């Protein structure tokens, strides 16, 4: 009985890995993520995160994907992550990780705002964050934003506030020229199911209408690991487990 269960699990695991490789190598009729189909369609993309390490832990597959396709990526980190008094160290770690991820230093901005300090229970003003993001949009000619969804992957309140601030920005300014994408949070069971989750992720993204959801596979897993290793001050158990794929949903025009 146990032998049968273990064999079945191995078969499912191997089939899931094969599925991932098949997706990587197959061509789809769907336009690429953040592409409208044109070869020269390079975008000015702003990734908005709350803390140093968010970019490596949650977004590195997407960063690699965008950099490989020539998009111009900017990263805005809204705090130095000073909850444990390590803000200065974490800020430097972010720059080193971005170097690994091939995001130019001058396109990475880390804030240390009095009202946007790292911590559970520290609510961030959606209006303030929204204003800061809008300034970045205007300064850098941003036409696409990527950030957390309303659960914020880990449920951290700072991640969730960033999401709500982006929504507020899009709602208040009616900026229809800006696309906004959110990283879809998954249940803990799916998060730690490894490649097996590929079946659910691809099914749900393929059923989306008009290219409003994508499943992005990690094309540079070693690079992701190296980027995360730069955040040595955060190397605790929760930081070691990384997702191999990311699922995106369009939020911009759906608000
Ligand atoms: Zn975070």
TrEMBL record:
UniProt enzyme class: hydrolase
Molecular function GO labels: N-acetylglucosaminylphosphatidylinositol deacetylase activity
Gene Ontology cellular component terms for the protein in this record: endoplasmic reticulum; membrane
Protein name in the entry: N-acetylglucosaminylphosphatidylinositol deacetylase
Gene name, Swiss-Prot/TrEMBL: LOC116212949
PANTHER family, per database record: N-ACETYLGLUCOSAMINYL-PHOSPHATIDYLINOSITOL DE-N-ACETYLASE, N-ACETYLGLUCOSAMINYL-PHOSPHATIDYLINOSITOL DE-N-ACETYLASE-RELATED
Signal peptide: 1-18
Thylakoid recorded as keyword: no
Family in the record: Belongs to the PIGL family.
EC number: 3.5.1.89
Keyword match Cytoplasm: no
Keywords: Signal
GO BP field: GPI anchor biosynthetic process
């Amino acid at each position: 009985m146990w032998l049968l269960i273990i064999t079945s699990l191995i078969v499912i695991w191997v089939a899931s890995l094969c599925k991932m490789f098949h997706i990587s190598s197959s061509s789809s009729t769907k336009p690429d993520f953040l592409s409208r189909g044109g070869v020269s369609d390079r975008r000015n993309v702003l990734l908005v995160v709350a803390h140093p390490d968010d970019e490596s832990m949650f977004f590195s597959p997407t960063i690699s994907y965008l950099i490989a396709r020539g998009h111009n990526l900017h990263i805005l980190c809204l705090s130095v992550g000073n909850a444990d008094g390590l803000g200065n160290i974490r800020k430097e770690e972010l720059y080193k990780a971005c170097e690994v991820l091939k995001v130019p230093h001058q396109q990475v901005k880390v804030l240390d705002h009095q009202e946007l300090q790292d911590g559970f229970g520290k609510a961030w003003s959606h209006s303030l964050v929204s204003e800061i993001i809008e300034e970045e949009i205007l300064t850098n000619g941003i036409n696409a934003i990527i950030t957390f969804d309303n659960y914020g992957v880990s449920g951290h309140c700072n991640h969730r506030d960033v999401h709500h601030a982006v929504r507020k920005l899009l709602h208040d300014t009616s900026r229809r020229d800006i696309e906004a994408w959110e990283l879809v949070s998954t249940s803990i069971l799916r998060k730690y199911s490894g490649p097996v989750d590929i079946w659910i992720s691809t099914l749900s993204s393929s059923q989306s209408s008009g290219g409003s959801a994508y499943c992005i596979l990690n094309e540079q897993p070693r690079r992701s690991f190296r980027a995360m290793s730069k955040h040595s001050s955060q190397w605790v158990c929760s930081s070691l487990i990384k997702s191999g794929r990311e699922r995106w949903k369009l939020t911009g025009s759906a608000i």
